[in-house]
Amino acid sequence: MKNIVILISGNGSNMAAIVQAAQAEQWAQRLDARISAVISNRPGAQGLAWAQAHGVATQVVDHTDFAAEPQPREAFDLALMAAIDTHQPHLVVLAGFMRILTPGFVAHYAGRLVNIHPSLLPAFTGLRTHERALQAGCQFAGATVHRVTNELDHGEILAQAVVPVLDDDTADTLAERVLAQEHVMYPRVVAQLLK
To answer: What confidence category does residue 74 fall into, taking pLDDT thresholds of 50, 70 and 90?
Structure first.
């Protein structure tokens, strides 16, 4: 059985889309795969309750617990790796996981670590992507699923979804339309990676 571990920091709407696709499309039988855990760096992440309600195991590795460590990022990533590795993951999926990962973490999951970013990479890496797209006068925006590397939002592009930028768009309305496309694209890409 191919285990998938999903990492979240908040609402987990992309995680929910993946879990729903896995259950509806019977990934366990069709792809010999299952969502084995959802792990968050924030104890109050709303996505944890959603995952539990849908029968998925959850865990928290709170990044604030490592603030007193001499190297807090490295200590957190080591603890997170230990939690993930108990599931022997075939794939680690970042779904709104708002932490920059250390090179050691990325190397440990090389080829098995994917992310979704709310822009048409390589444009607008980092935060505030929709606001920046509007400020730049873009006619199109979208989202990208990519492999994770040590360089933020620069891994191999696996898929992109494009939406038009409308004349009356705000960052919020654009984000809403892009997110709807993410919910379609991300489960499809994860399923392809499991084949």
So the answer is: very high
